[in-house]
Design the sequence.
């Protein structure tokens, strides 16, 4: 699981969502004693939504898995990356209006037939 996890973010309010994501990931970095393990692109606005990419070092995800232990496995989703999206969504949804997270590589695969 080397490299980065790229997450497509769709949000109604870019400022609130990006701040909430940044806040949550900064807290995670502090908990696992790491820094600069995520970056966020600028937003593109279309159809009333803001679209941007959040890129997270997979090492940060693995540190969360270690820290949470068996509780991480109880999260909804197949595989570590999906469980991380569930964790991130649960921790941000109360601080931000409507938003969606999706793994970028899956969105671009032909399985969805739209890209």
Sequence:
């Amino acid at each position: 699981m080397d490299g980065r996890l790229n997450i497509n973010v769709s949000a109604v309010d870019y400022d609130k969502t990006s701040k909430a994501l940044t806040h949550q990931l900064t807290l995670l970095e502090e908990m696992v004693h790491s820094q600069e393990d995520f970056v966020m692109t600028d937003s593109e606005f279309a159809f009333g939504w803001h679209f941007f990419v959040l890129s997270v070092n997979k090492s940060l995800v693995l540190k969360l898995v270690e820290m949470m232990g068996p509780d991480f496995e109880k999260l909804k989703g197949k595989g570590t990356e999906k469980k991380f999206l569930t964790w991130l969504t649960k921790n941000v949804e109360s601080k931000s209006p409507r938003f969606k997270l999706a793994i970028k590589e899956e969105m671009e695969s032909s399985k969805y037939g739209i890209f």
The first helix runs from residue 14 to 32. The chain has a mean pLDDT of 90.
